[in-house]
Amino acid sequence: MIHERNKLELGIVQMRCEHDTQRNLHKALAMTREAARNGAQLVCLPELFRSQYFCQTEDAALFDLAESIPGPSSTAFSELAAKLDITIVISVFERRTAGLYHNTAIVIDGAHGAVGMYRKMHIPDDPRYYEKFYFTPGDLGFKAFDTRHGKIGTLVCWDQWYPEAARITALMGAQLLCYPTAIGWHPAERAALGDSQHDAWEVMQRSHAIANGCFVAAVNRTGFEADPSARESSGIGIQFWGQSFVAAPDGRILCKASADEEVVLNVSLDLGAIEDQRRGWPFLRDRRIDVYGGLDQRFID
């Protein structure tokens, strides 16, 4: 058995998000400290944790939630990463310049600071998920970052439905795919579709782990958040389904949060399992890279 980098101690943060951005930031910092106290070397937080999920409506005033890089989130977490000597993956609403915004993940590696960032590539436009209004699609390509604790791939939420994104990031050497996420139910649909929607999401992430022989961490928020354009009491909004989890290279779920609990989960990842899994299921060996040309087309007529 080969152990490339021995073990990686991972912490994932599942939290509720409030209207108050400072309270969200302080809570995220506190939960990251908790993960580090429990032994985490790498901590991943949910998508856009500094605010409630504002993309439920199209409102130009909500662009004011964006921050530059460096900015409040990256500065606070860079200081914390250096102090605790850990690696942290955070998700921010990035203001790149006037009128240009991205949904961006930053990897901060202890005292080395930010080692890079990834801008969300796939941008949804669905009821309650009007992200195309706010985010320019990523222009940095797919990314895998060398950190002291392993090679980390970052993808964000809607990216997690695309096998191409997971494959390319794994081919760059990522041992762990981190998916900061904000996903949930429309309350009116939950009774009829809730189980099947959640099951599809979980199966998709496990399939990325199996197909690529790597670890996958899906890190979600939890709690109900009202549509910003509706009354809080209207019941119109998203019930985030929590259930953050980590999958092993063979697809097994190593740890999983409940649907409605704010929680820090810590799990030990044996990175040597990647070598073992890929020897037994050699999907990378048997890929027919000579016949995949159609993948660069929208549809093959």
Tell me the strand order in the biggest sheet: 5-4-3-2-1-17
**CATH topology label:** Nitrilase/N-carbamoyl-D-aminoacid amidohydrolase
Strand residue content: 25-35%
CATH class: Alpha Beta
- The DSSP helix count reads 5
At the fourth level of CATH, the homologous superfamily is Carbon-nitrogen hydrolase
Mean pLDDT rating? 96
Oligomer: single chain
**SSE order:** EHEHEEEEEEEHEEHEEEEEEH
Q: What shape does the CA trace take?
A: globular
Helix content: 10-25%
- Overall number of structural domains: 1
Radius of gyration based on Cα positions: 19 Å
Terminal CA distance: 46 Å
Short description:
The chain is of the alpha+beta class. The chain has helices spanning 21-37, 72-84, 163-171, 187-212, 272-280; strands at 7-14, 42-44, 87-97, 100-109, 114-119, 125-126, 129-130, 144-147, 150-154, 176-180, 184-185, 215-219, 222-226, 237-241, 245-247, 253-256, 263-270.
How would you describe this protein?
There is one protein chain. The chain is of the alpha+beta class and 301 residues long. The chain has a single domain, classed as 4-Layer Sandwich (Nitrilase/N-carbamoyl-D-aminoacid amidohydrolase). 25% of the residues lie in helices and 29% in strands. The chain contains five helices and 17 strands. It has helices at residues 21-37, 72-84, 163-171, 187-212, 272-280; strands at 7-14, 42-44, 87-97, 100-109, 114-119, 125-126, 129-130, 144-147, 150-154, 176-180, 184-185, 215-219, 222-226, 237-241, 245-247, 253-256, 263-270. The strands form four sheets. The protein has a six-stranded mixed beta sheet. A six-stranded mixed beta sheet has the order 8-9-10-12-15-16, covered by helices on one side. A three-stranded antiparallel beta sheet has the order 11-14-13. It is globular and about 55 Å long. The mean pLDDT is 96.
